[in-house]
Amino acid sequence: MAAPAGAGAVIAAPDRRRWLWPVLTAAFGLLTTGASALEVYTPKEIFVANGTQGKLTCKFKSTNTTGTLTTVSWSFQPEGADTTVSFFHYSQGQVYPGNYPPFKDRISWAGDLDKKDASINIENMQFIHNGTYICDVKNPPDIVAQPGHIRLYVVEKETVPVFPVWVVVGTVTAVVVGVTLLIGTVLAVLYRRRNSKRDYTGAQSYMHS
């Protein structure tokens, strides 16, 4: 008995989908051959005293050699805002500052692409510069997986932390542990000496008796 006319089309559609995905996957692999993820490294947060220079450190790792196609872009998300604004671009050895007024005549390039460094300096930082700074590096054919984010706090000079909190906590913890071990060692030595003296006295008394 012959199959209905539409049956062939119903059966052919799943078969077509079955070989279509491998073809698309192979094509995508050919397009991305030679490309890998470019990793960007920035500090999680920094504190800058009001009226002083702040350095925004941004380092990156790329398997491809830097060159004329390598670019760096910095953007800023003000504190309490949902949007970001681009305020700095670096390409082919040239600096292209944006038109964002809070950063006018304040930005200078502090990086070295040959050393995988995309850092910048911001002069005379004010409280309006509180917010999140985003460092985005492109080095074709490598592509960036995730730009670096820095949370920057502008504070009064008297309140700038000399050391990060985790350093202070770690130092205090190490000191406490060290003192505890030292006290324990001294007590153990004194206890052993006391027991040794007691055993020696007992042995002498036994010999005299």
Number of helices: 2
> How many strands appear in the DSSP assignment?
12
User: Distance between termini?
Assistant: 121 Å
Percent of sequence in beta strands: 25-35%
Helix/strand/pairing category: alpha+beta
Computed over alpha carbons, the radius of gyration is 33 Å
- Spatial arrangement of strands, main beta sheet: 2-12-10-5-6-7
- Dominant shape: elongated
The percent of residues in helical segments reads 25-40%
Please give the largest β-sheet. Answer: 6 strands, mixed
The gist of it:
By secondary structure, this protein is an alpha+beta fold. It has helices at residues 7-31, 165-208; strands at 37-41, 45-49, 54-56, 59-61, 71-78, 85-91, 94-97, 107-109, 120-122, 131-138, 143-146, 148-155. Helix content is 33%, strand content 29%.
List descriptors.
209 residues, alpha+beta, six-stranded mixed beta sheet, three-stranded mixed beta sheet, 2 helices
List strands and helices in order, with pairings.
Blueprint: H1 7-31, E1 37-41, E2 45-49, E3 54-56, E4 59-61, E5 71-78, E6 85-91, E7 94-97, E8 107-109, E9 120-122, E10 131-138, E11 143-146, E12 148-155, H2 165-208
Parallel strand pairs: 1-11, 2-12
Antiparallel strand pairs: 1-4, 3-9, 5-6, 5-10, 6-7, 8-9, 10-12
